[in-house]
Structure formats: structure tokens, C-alpha cells
Amino acid sequence: MESAQPFDHAAWVANEGAIRRRRAMWIALVIAALLLALLYGGRVAWLSMMATEGDVPPASSVPLPEGAEIMGDSIGCGSGGCSVTFTVRPPAGQSPEALAEQMGATPQMSVPGTFWDPRTVWVSARPAGSVLNLVVDYWSTEWVP
What we know:
Elements: H1 9-49, E1 69-78, E2 81-89, H2 96-103, E3 108-111, E4 121-128, E5 131-137
């Protein structure tokens, strides 16, 4: 007949402490994840609900090829919202028309939003002499020929 192991109260208490610490850690991680999700959801809701026709995308939202340079910008508003027009100098040896085609902005391109700002950015290209004017906004719809 086997003899029963004696009850080790110290091991029992140590095991209970480890279980409590593990449970507290998981609870803290779940709460932190929920708080981050609420903050992100609040940010996206703020962008959606508080959007005005005056919102214009920043210059960093336009993917320019290497060598192209933004010379200036101007904001214009109309009945369909506001847009910003970036005056872009093409890289050396490239025409404004070729730059627009390289970017895919003829006649219009859409730039998907980022994690922090999920709004789609619409870009249309308009060559003007030796520069390319890029009209950028959040309010356009897809161009249909």
C-alpha cells in the first residue's frame, strides 16, 4: 500500500500567490488593450463625426517619387468642400505630364488612409507649364470617364 504525501501548506500558498499574480497580469493586459481600443475608436469617431468641409490632407499624404519637390501650396474651398493644391516641381529631366503618369494621378488616384488617419485621400494632377499642380482632398469621389 502506498503512503499518501503529506500536505505542504507552504507550497500551496506559493502556488496560490503565483496564480493571483498571473490573473492580475492578464486583467491588467486586457484593461490596457480595451483602453487602447477605446482611444483609437474615439480618434476614428472624432475624424468621422467632426469632419468639416474645411479639412484638407497634409503634404505627407501625397506619395511623391524621388526627386520631386513641393514648391508651395494653396487651399481653396467650394461647394464640395476644401482642397489643397500642391505645386510640385518634377525631378530633373522629367515633364509634369510624365510625373503625373508615374504617380498614377492621371486623371485621379486614391491614397488609402493610414492607421492613425483612415480617411482616403484623393489626388488629381493638372500640369501647368513646368510644374504639376496636385489637387488633394478628402471629399472627391472616384473619377468615372
